[in-house]
Amino acid sequence: MIDKKKRFLIIGLGLLGGSYAMGLKKRGHIVSAIDINEASINYALEKGIIDEGAATADPNLISQADVIISGLYPKTIVGWISENQQYFKKNALITDVTGVKCSIIYKIQELLREDCEFIGSHPMAGKEVSGVQFADPSIFLPANLIITPTSKNTQAAIDFLYEFGIELRFNNICILTPEKHDEMIGYLSQLTHVIAVSLMNANDNSHLKEYTGDSFRDLTRIAKINENLWTELFLMNKDVLVNEITAFVDEINDFKQKLMAEDVDGMKQKFIQSTKRRKYFDK
């Protein structure tokens, strides 16, 4: 169990940052937050989601934190740590919620003070909405937490994040290298968003809503997407994502050829294989 005396600071009080804050507060932890949107800070204070907050990088809040969790966009996090690490408490632990790892972790660990430690993590949770007003720690209950240590991380930091995941009731906690994380996320998350976006853009019929069934709704749920965040994520994992798109297009073309050739057995084998693989998710 995490020591209740540890003070948490959330940087960027969006959906994930807010859900972390709410979950930690419910379990008796002291939580502060910094967000450039003062309305978000005021909302979180009024609802009891945080104990303290500021709309600027308040040195006092930063220096009190034992654990700093960045909910910033990936392009922003490195600069924020570089500019504000002078205020970090000795032995502070820093982590994040970012959906890409290789392009940020090594930069942060290279520039970070030696008496502090950064270890990457990624909650595989979310909604198709953003903002602290939608914060809900129950989104972690069915979700995976991925911890992405490097050779520069201590076992104590890995153990802490594991306990953190248990504290917030994540369904599963796993450990991957930053490289393996980006490879897996390229397929499991980024490619699926590309597919959903492409489905919504492939047909401009304004009456689709009147005809659609559950299959189209389910497949395109994640097409409601933050264009600024996901553009950053895609570009920072470009090589992996391009390879996954290529493999997916090859699979689509293979199915197309079987359909054109009326290859009944070939199509059935595709269905049998996909059904078998999807059943693993139902266990």
From TrEMBL:
InterPro entries in the cross-refs: 6-PGluconate_DH-like_C_sf, NAD(P)-bd_dom_sf, PDH_C, PDH_N, Preph/Arog_dehydrog, Prephen_DH
Prephenate/arogenate dehydrogenase domain boundaries: 6-283
Pfam families: PDH_C (PF20463), PDH_N (PF02153)
GO biological process: tyrosine biosynthetic process
Keywords: Oxidoreductase
UniProt-listed SUPFAM superfamilies: 6-phosphogluconate dehydrogenase C-terminal domain-like (SSF48179), NAD(P)-binding Rossmann-fold domains (SSF51735)
Entry keyword annotation includes Oxidoreductase: yes
PROSITE patterns with a match to the protein in the record: PDH_ADH (PS51176)
Pathway where it operates: Amino-acid biosynthesis
Molecular-function annotations in GO: NAD+ binding; prephenate dehydrogenase (NAD+) activity; prephenate dehydrogenase (NADP+) activity
Family: Belongs to the prephenate/arogenate dehydrogenase family.
Database matches in PANTHER family: PREPHENATE DEHYDROGENASE, PREPHENATE DEHYDROGENASE [NADP(+)]
Protein name per UniProt: Prephenate dehydrogenase
Highest classification ranks of the organism: Bacteria, Bacillati, Bacillota, Erysipelotrichia, Erysipelotrichales
